[in-house]
Amino acid sequence: MRQLGIDVRKDWDLYLALLPGIAFLLLFKYTPMYGIIIAFKDFNIFDGMAASPWVGMKHFDKLISSASFLQVFQNTLLISLYKIVFLFPLPIVIAILLNELKNMAFKRSIQTVVYLPHFLSWVIVSGLFIDLLSTNGGIVNKMIVAMGGEPIRFFLDSQIFRSVLIGTAGWKETGWNTIIYLAALASIDPGLYEAAKIDGANKWKQIVHITLPGLIPIILLMFILRLGYVLEAGTEQILVMYNPSVYNVADVIGTYVYRIGLGEQDYSFSTAVGVFESVVAFILILTGNGLARKFFGRGIW
User: Fold this and answer.
1) Residues 6+ apart with CB under 8 A from 65
2) How far apart are CA 210 and CA 216, in angstroms?
3) Residues in domain ABC transmembrane type-1 (predicted)?
4) DSSP-assigned beta bridge partners for residue 41
C-alpha cells in the first residue's frame, strides 16, 4: 500500500486521467451485474427484484430442457463457426496483399474502400442488401434472370439466409480487422525481409517465414477475443435482417433473449439465457488462452 501511495503521488495526473474510465466500468459494467439475481427468481416487474420469490435453478433447468433453445443454440454455434472459418482469415490475407503493394496512393484507396463499411450501421447495411437482393427489382436478381435463371429469395430461403449473413458480415467488418493486421505488419523489422532477399527467398517464402510468424501474436489475440463472442453470433445484424420464414436457421441466443424477454416479458428466463451465454464465453476465452499458451507459448495473459 505504501508503494501504491508513492506511485500515485508521483504520477497523480495519470491516475486522475484513469478515473473516468474506472467510473465508466463501475457504472455501466459492474453495477448492472446485480441484475443477474433475476435469473434465480420469478421476477415480477411490479414487485421488484427484492420482493420477487427465489426459485433457484428453475429457469436454467427450463433452459436446458427447452427444445426451442437447443435449436437456437445450434444456430448460434453454426453461424459463429461459419464466420470464424470464412471471415477470420480474410482480413489477414487482405492485409498481407495490401502490405505488398508499392503504389501508396492505390494502397490507401483500397484501404479506404474496404474500411468504410465498418462505419455504417446494420440498419443501413440491411436496407442496402435488401434492395440489392430483392426479388422485386433487385440488381442481383435482375442479373440472374437476364442469364436465364430464376429469382432467388435470399432473405426468405432458409437454405441461403445464413450465406447472406456471412457475406454481409464480411463486407462490413473485414476492413476494420484488416487495419489491425496492417498495424501489426508495420512493426515487423524490414531488415528481416532484406536478409531473406539476400538468401534468395522469394515473396512466398518471405510471407511464410517472416510475415506470418510476425503476425502470430495479434492473430492469437484476435482469435481468443473472437472465441468470447461465439455465442453472440451477430445479434444486431440478425435482428434487422431475419424474419419468421428463417427463424429455424437464424434465430440465435441474442435474438431469442430479445423475443422472450421483451416479447413475452419473461425477464427471469431471458436473464438465465444471458447468464448461460456469459459463462460459456468466459470458459471459451480461458480455454483458448490456455491452448494458445500451451502450443504457441503466448496468450492474452
Assistant:
1) none
2) 10
3) 73-288
4) 54
Task: Report the Cα 213 to chain-centroid distance in Å.
Answer: 24
Domains of the chain plus CATH, in order, are 59-296 (1.10.3720.10)
Planar angle of CA 8, 11, 15, nearest 5 degrees: 70
Enter the DSSP assignment of 54.
B
Q: How far apart are CA 97 and CA 267, in angstroms?
A: 48
For 106, residues 6+ apart whose C-beta sits below 8 A from its C-beta are none
Instruction: Find where cell 474506472 sits.
Output: 22
CB count within 10 Å of CB 119 equals 10
Q: For residue range 194-219, list pLDDT tens digits in order.
A: 888 888 888 888 888 888 888 888 88
DSSP 41: B
Question: CA–CA separation, 273 vs 64, rounded Å?
Answer: 10
Residue pLDDT, tens place only, 129-184: 989 988 888 898 889 888 888 888 888 888 899 999 999 999 998 988 898 898 88
The grid cell for 73 is 443454440
Phi and psi based region of residue 251 (left: phi greater than 0; alpha: psi -120 to 50; beta: remaining): beta
